Amino acid sequence: MIISILVPEGVILCAYGQRREALRLHKAWQRKYPEQQGYLGMDGAFFVVMGGFIIDRVPAGSVDQHYTAILTPTGFLHFLESGHIGHRTFDRRDIVDKGNADAIAKLISSSQALWLFVQCLARWKAYLPLTLVCAIHAILV
């Protein structure tokens, strides 16, 4: 959190990198399964980038030892190309369910942003100085 306050460009750069990686996964899915292009979707590709897929019960040397592994984007591409991952491997509804934001949370955050914007506008119209938070918010919104 401190890094995001000190270097907000770094957060934007990380988000851009995650988007590029998700787009690469999505295009690989479309090449492998052209008849089911929308099954993984960009939300599913972001789910892979975030480490949402796990492989349960991976052998770890002896017969009795197993561990759970998180599937990275590179591992997902490997399993996709080898045919181990397909539309029957996971349920799309589980991925979509993870990404749904609550409507009340959207309403609250939207109303807060609107209120701050109105306050900035009112201060500007009254010829009062704008605080740094107001100026940054007005630029971003």
Portion of residues within helices = 55-70%
Number of helices: 7
- Strand order within the widest sheet? 1-2
Provide the gyration radius in Å. 22 Å
Number of strands: 2
SSE series: HHHEEHHHH
Overall mean pLDDT stands at 79
Number of domains: 2
Extract low-pLDDT stretches: none
Structural class by SSE content = mainly alpha
Strand fraction equals 5-15%
Could you give a short account of the major beta sheet?
2 strands, antiparallel
Shape type: elongated
Give the end-to-end Cα distance, rounded to a whole number of Å: 21 Å
Write the layout of secondary structure elements.
Blueprint: H1 2-6, H2 8-32, H3 37-49, E1 54-60, E2 62-70, H4 73-82, H5 92-99, H6 103-125, H7 132-140
Antiparallel strand pairs: 1-2
Helix pairs in contact: 2-3, 2-4, 3-5, 6-7
Report on the structure:
This protein starts with a helix and ends with a helix. It is mainly alpha-helical and 141 residues long. A two-stranded antiparallel ribbon has the order 1-2. It has 7 helices and 2 strands. It folds into 2 domains: 2-100, no CATH class; 101-141. Helix 2 (8-32) packs antiparallel against helix 3 and helix 3 (37-49) packs across helix 5. 66% of the residues lie in helices and 11% in strands.
